[in-house]
Amino acid sequence: MSGTLHFAADAGVATVTLESPGKLNAVSVSMWHELRRVFEALAEDDDVRCIVVRGAGGNFAAGADLDEFDEVHGDLARGRRFHLETVMPALAAVRDVPQPVVAAIEGVCAGGGLQIALACDIRLAADGARFSVPVGRLGFPVVLPELRLLLERIGQAVTAELLLTGRMFDAREAQGRGIVSRAVAAAEFEQRVAETVQAIVACSPSAARRNKAQIRLLVERGMQYTAHDLDRSFDFLDSEDYREGIAAFIARRHPKFTGR
């Protein structure tokens, strides 16, 4: 089986599930394309306030499907197309979607699976989760656009250790090294994921989108911003969500945010 990607949406929360039975959810070419398609569609859906990415059957994803490597890595031209026209556009779609994205990580999260997780905004890991990028053992490096994602998310030292040693990090070490936001006991994992999602949904969607965009802007520009960026950062003062949030706080009631 080449694997599949499942999608469901309920009450403002979209869930995207990677499934590749018998392969620890290794990501096939068709799954990379579907991941891009789904996230590009979600970017246009104002009813979705939060997106959860997870794997089926107790694992997140074990990287790209090696059974397809003869086809996609068979020569320079095909390898280049695979990374630049298949993998990177999918990762960019996850990274660039305006809504907050939560990676719910159990079991194996390796290679391309870890790249998908790192494209998400918040990463929660169950205690049994394991993380690695063992490309050196397969004889190839991470190409520059994908390497940039690793460096932006987890920094030079952690990226170097993952790539140069190929060793596996457990969930607690991954938390300590900044690979995941939080590691939790497996028995509490689903509850903690649900709490995180509901906390996001309870907040202003317009504020969430702006916070996400401004975090990325400052990270990519080395903490620099223009006068125009500064002016735009105060646009919230004219928003309905801002007025509703302040009014609800004063009245001691729950706000009813519309995203406007």
Describe the protein in words:
This protein is of the alpha/beta class. The protein folds into two domains: 4-200, 2-enoyl-CoA Hydratase, Chain A, domain 1 (Alpha-Beta Complex); 204-251. The chain is 49% helix and 16% strand. It contains eleven helices and nine strands. The strands form two sheets. The protein has a six-stranded mixed beta sheet with strand order 1-2-3-4-6-9, with helices on both faces. The chain has a three-stranded mixed beta sheet with strand order 5-7-8. Helix 3 (76-96) packs parallel to helix 4 (112-119). The longest helix has 22 residues, at 144-165.
Strand content: 15-25%
Q: The CATH topology of the largest domain is what? A: 2-enoyl-CoA Hydratase, Chain A, domain 1
What is the number of domains?
Answer: 2
Q: For the record, give the distance between the C-alpha atoms at the N and C termini, rounded to a whole number.
A: 44 Å
Q: Spans of 5+ residues with little confidence (pLDDT < 50)?
A: none
Average pLDDT over all residues: 94
The string of secondary-structure elements, in order, is: EEHEHHEEHEEHHEHEHHHH
Instruction: Tally the helices.
Output: 11
Based on the structure given, which CATH architecture of the largest domain is correct? Answer: Alpha-Beta Complex
Largest sheet: 6 strands, mixed
- Tell me the strand order in the biggest sheet: 1-2-3-4-6-9
The CATH superfamily title of the largest domain: 2-enoyl-CoA Hydratase, Chain A, domain 1
Number of strands: 9
Provide the gyration radius in Å. Answer: 19 Å
